[in-house]
Predict the structure.
Amino acid sequence: TPSFAYTTLPDIPNTDQVQLVPAQGWQHLPASRQPPLETTLCIRTKRPGEDRLFPTLFLDSQGQGYDQVMICTARDGQTALATLRVGEWSPWSFQTFQVEGTAVTGTVRFKLIELSPDARRMRLYRSQVMRTDGFTEPPELAPELIARFGPYLEHASDTSHFLGMTDMQTCLEEMAYHCQWIAQAGKYMLQEKGCSLFYTHIHLFDYINHHHLSGVDPVSPGYDPAKAAEHLDCYRQSYIIADQAIGTLLEATDAETVVIALSDHGAVPDVRAINYRKFLYEKGFLAVKDPRGLERDEVSMDNIDWAKTKAYMKPGRGLEIFINAKTPEEYQRIQEELLFTLRTWVDAETGRTPIALALPKRDAYLLGFWGDQCGDVVFVNDFGYMHGYFGEWGGIKGGGTIGQPEWCGAHHGPQLPTARTAVASNLGCFLMMGPGVKQGYERPVERLGYVHMTQVVPTICHLLGIEPPRQAQGAVAYDFLEGVDLVRERETSLPEWARGTGREGWGGRIWVQKDMFDFKSYRGQQ
């Protein structure tokens, strides 16, 4: 069950708005300078099941207003799970839930975020409820890890702060718990379980980039210098969390251990938002039965008028457009028309073309797209242009198919991998250390290009001395390894017959084959 919050405040997503009323019918009421108030917290199961109710008291312990919350399992003060003041977490609690007809154990904890002395303002955060089984293989490993490191928290992000459920500090605390739990579990598996390979993923930087990069990058239309330090501190705290997690894992390493730290992408600010479905609709490629969802870039498959539609996008935020044609000739005509329309589209406000590349399916392998699920036209946005995030943006200012988003975040997938600003980049990182790895080496990307994600697994397998999976299509990043030199200086003093291989290239000065063929006579016959 995802994280949640309970509040007296209106219009906060993922919360129950509760009322605090005088406590009645309780046993063993604790002392309170003012009459205790009560409400009931409800935990709903994500899958079909029974709700769990937690009667909760609000107390005035000092005579200066309400300052405590007591969370109970029944209307009895002696069943309290925790008594909290503002800023305090409860201990982890193991509770039984009925889910799909079966009793399962889940773990939960609470944190009091806000409580005004008159109790009119209250926010109480509840963590994700995580089952105590089903998250390890073999299954018996789960209770062993929980006993050593505490309950597993699968999802930890700053989304609850973004939605107003809680504050940023609480999100950072959850992300720190999540990352450190994984690191401790990894250290345990390496040191005590004899594992030869440990790999994991932590997602906190993705969350931070989405919600805070535009706060530190002046390229963003939403950048506010007065708030930049606050957003930058979120980055600082996140890097501290990751650094501590890596530090824990490094405690499990020795002289024979290779450590790799990498990311699959970075992010750049959303400068301009694109509504592709509305664009296809206005250009006559897409026909719909009900156009009301177009303003939010939403068109369900059953809302498409297939008899009149030439091209469409499937649900989601993909980079592919599919063609609806009955014959190969019609397919070819629509594809060419669509490619021309995309390639010549100009953003009237900026004078820029929002699409960096648009390719037919037969050429899409250049971008890593192929197979029977690949779209008929594949496109990539130019720097600053994003699509598919209307749930975050709230819309395009002034409507239309392209413009500034109402809310400015940051994303990655729809743009060129090399998109960058002075602050940020779409590029990921690839760092290595250990035996057989060069020290102090930095790949000269202007000569060797970037490491591809498909190279990661073959490189790891090479270091382990095992064959890569049969589905792996990448190559080993040999230039990171000792004894391998992929960059060599070209010879500059070459004989004339070899000058075409020089750094300056062929040019118009020399024909390597001039002594083999009579080009002069040939040209004279033309």
User: Anything to note?
Assistant: Residues 436-480 form one domain.
